[in-house]
Design a protein that fits this description.
Chain B: Keywords: Repeat, WD repeat. Chain B: Belongs to the WD repeat WDR48 family. Chain B: It holds the Pfam family WD40. Chain B: GO terms for molecular function: ubiquitin binding. Chain B: This is WD repeat-containing protein 48 homolog. The complex is a heterodimer of chains A (394) and B (659). Chain A is an alpha+beta fold. Helix content of chain A is 26%, strand content 30%. Chain A contains 8 helices and 21 strands. In chain A, the strands form 6 sheets. In chain A, strands 6, 12, 16, 17, 18, 19, 20 and 21 form an 8-stranded mixed β-sheet that branches. Chain A has a 5-stranded antiparallel β-sheet with strand order 3-5-4-11-8, with no helix packed on it. In chain A, strand 9 and strand 10 form a beta hairpin. In chain A, helix 3 crosses helix 4 and helix 4 packs antiparallel against helix 5. Chain B is 10% helix and 39% strand. Chain B is built from 8 helices and 46 strands. In chain B, strand 12 and strand 13 form a beta hairpin. Chain B is elongated, with a radius of gyration of 31 Å. Chain B starts with a strand and ends with a strand. The chains are: A alpha+beta (394), B mainly beta (659). At the A-B interface, loops of A face loops of B.
Amino acid sequence: MGANASSQLEKEINSDNFANEHYYGLVNFGNTCYCNSVIQALYFCQPFREKVLQYKQQLKKSGNPKENLLTCLADLFHNIATQKRRVGTIAPKRFITKLKKENELFDNYMQQDAHEFLNYLLNTISETLIDEKKERPPAVKNGTLRKSHPPPTSVQETRERTRSDSQPGCSRVSESTWVQDIFQGTLTNETRCLNCESVSSKDEDFLDLSVDVEQNASITHCLRVFSNTETLCADQKYYCETCCSHQEAQKRMRIKKLPRMLALHLKRFKYVDQLSRNTKLSYRVLFPLELRLFNVSDDAVNGDRLYDLCAVVVHCGATPNRGHYITVVKSHNFWLLFDDDIVDKIDVSAIEDFFGLSEGGIQKNSDSAYILFYQARDGPTIDTARVTPNHMSI
Amino acid sequence: MTASTGAQPATTAYGNKRRVSFVIRETEEKRPRSFINCLQWDPSTSRLFTAGADTIIRTWRTPREMSSSSTTPEAQYLVSMEHHTDWVNDMVLCCGGKYLLSASNDTTVKVWNATKNFCMSTLRTHTDYVSSLAYAREQERAASAGFDNAIFLWDVGTLTRLTSTNNTVTTSSLSGNKNSIYALAMNPSGTVIVSGSTEKILRVWDPRTCQKLLKLRGHTDNIRSIAVSSDGKQCVSGSSDGTFRLWDLGMQRTIWTSNLHHEGVWAMQVDAGWNHVYSGGRDKRVYRTAINNHSNWQLLLTEEAPVKQLLLIEPEQPRHLWVATWTSTVRRWPIPQGSSLTISDVDSNYDLRFEDPKPLIPKEDMVVSGAPSLRQHIVLNDKRHVVTRDSIGNIALWDILAAKKLNEWADRPMEEVVKENSRKVFVPSWFSVDVKSGMLQITLDESDVFSAWVSAKDAGINDSDNKVNYGGMLLRALFERWPECASAPDDPSMIGNPNVPPHTPLIICEAATGRPLFRLLVRDACCEAESQLLSEILPNWVLDVVQAGQLPKFTKMPFFLLPHSSLQQKQPKKDRLSATEMLQVRKVMEHVYEKVLHGGTEFTSIETPPTLSRSTNIESCLELYCNEQKLDPEMDLRTVKHFIWKQGGDLILHYKYLK
């Protein structure tokens, strides 16, 4: 059946101008759709794919025999990109085996969280690259190995600085790899004391943004809520260094450096006290094909960046523990749906089906967007999407 | 609603967890220790009242005759009124200067006799910082508002009749506020009351009926100061958004908005004739603007720090303006009279962004000089000494146990003093420090007050190995004069009680909210009323030490003792030993010598360390290691754990004997 579907797609893409692109479904090894869906999304994040394939070329040259999660991913991407046929199915067996070996969290047949996996994968790749950079000359001094930085999480590192007296020597520069180059942005956390009205700000790097979802809202609205002003008062007062005492303060989080690839995680899985378990919020959350951020700080350098939607990881089902993950990607002006080993071309209007449900969003079965990947239009890889007309009205 | 007042709080209304704090300071603090939040003027006696972050209300006399010397004359200090335990935010002088009301971050409003200078009663109806007061002179009514969103109306006459037995008062409250209130004002006839809050809206009530009248929208940030015209038809408001506005309450709209200030407008005064508004704020400037034409304005003066409060003297024909800023010094500026009032139209064409107009008043004519306030503190390793830095860079060294300052330097780096007075010793924390009042305040809490056991030798008491407890010693010293304080027990941990200065203020407060329950001076614990209250209010953890003379047990810590790898001994069974955390390494060495090398009997506790029968020097017989580092026999186990072991899990020590 899969073969039939593939041949159908093959005919379609041959009649259209799909350049030399490959569309391969990934075999499910028992609840590994969380992994397949994220890999497909990342494969169609052009800057990321390019770097992984470059890494593969480098591996060939250096002949590094040591297998890790990145080498397995590079092999998988290379495998897809060098297939003779344009469409088909591939079993990402080595990658899955390696993943389960490296992290016991994923070493079972349970349903996993795609966002957690994305986080783990990006951080692992980044650590691998940092370690490799260190192993290469300049040789290790005195034979002692420096301990690597703690693994970056989604909010990666905190640099604290007060506007009045910044200490440049104190800010530690995090080691940067192409993972950071592609996905990393910076949030600035501004706190203003309501008594002395002085502002202190603290920067945090992120690889993806997790936003709360609301019924019948747009992603722009969710981002605005993310940056809403919060007042620290009553027994939550803020210790102001200028006042030397606890005062009321207003705090807000805004984006200071916009990433090249913006990964937005919609917090659809939430612990509900009444049900005393995790539940899914199937709220209808609109996301546009073109996105501009409004919650940027005044000193942001690239605050007016325009983003194009390039991939969506969709969760299907009613609860976090049961369900399925699929991916919608854009490639050469066309939209495709990857459901494990099945690949289909879809119409752009079908994307609306993944907004969620407009009524009774809790505990309902839905196919709703879970992670959105937006690529900055000014990025060095110029996508042909530049001329895509925007069909959807949001 | 009814509110309970008086010096005596209703004990049942408060939680059981309590803290004890004390302030280390001079006997008499004549000069403000930190910035001034509020000013009042009594024209009948020419007295100025100041109060602010240092919790103390002070009165000053301003001499009428000016000395001809070149230095600015100083206001003469008269007296202090002390009872608040946190910042004083606002004051109003009532009944022609007889009584004073004050509002504080300690969540109370206090009623003072302003002629005899004592606290008459304390109103505890607010549950958060009380930020502002309003006063209707003709009605002798007052109102208080705070961060608990509440506004209470008070009849001044009733407040001044309160006594310790007749301590309930009826108040009405104004409802509707959803946010913390930062500003409050009433007209003299008490027909209109206006509040400003972080809601960015001015809310207006009729205080006679407690009816909501209206809301005024327009400001885009917190509202910090308000003044209402005597007819109650207009008001002015200053905001953190950098503007101040004139409002028409009848038409419910802004008449004009002034953008003179670069930053938040924190203080406003209007003369009695409602002719000019005086505004000051974060940009350090004070402007005078004509009410009837806001383009008619003048820059009166520029202060050295953000302006917190303004006070017009003789508001009918303003002659002087007192200005309080973000320093502890308050200055009086003479307002030019006569013709200079009208030259302002020419100045109004200045564009403030490009040109700084010259201030109209070049120099102050009187000053209330403040003292420097503590800004920074570092607790030293011995958990007994604290190093502080004040607002003019002085560095001081304090002994917490004796509640006094040991030394002070004018020009030394703080780090240097810290380094010079630090020792490589680990003592657990047993108190917390804050400097919100500009003075050093030490707080003792049940959770850790007894955690600091040290040897009498380390504490500098005598040369014995007896252990003393810092928290216990200090508590006994603080309540030494209380008749119920047990006479010094034989317990060696109680020896060498330090002396605490008798003027030291003691504060007992609720642990959860920090709200004060009782404030007294150390020397007053012997007075009958104070003594009685102490026995009602002091928490059990204080009573156990002070009244019953008991202390909790030593804190024990487990550790392992193994032969050093160089001894190439077969690893024996790992015995888990346990000892008090202040046990000296020397005692462990003696234990190794006696029991492991010569006795060989198994036991797992060295509660009573064996004494070495011979007067041998133990260091010549064996060495003790932790993490391959040789240990100093004088070190104690917790210091080893903190500085050398530096990890979780039980401490492992290795012994090596020398041949």
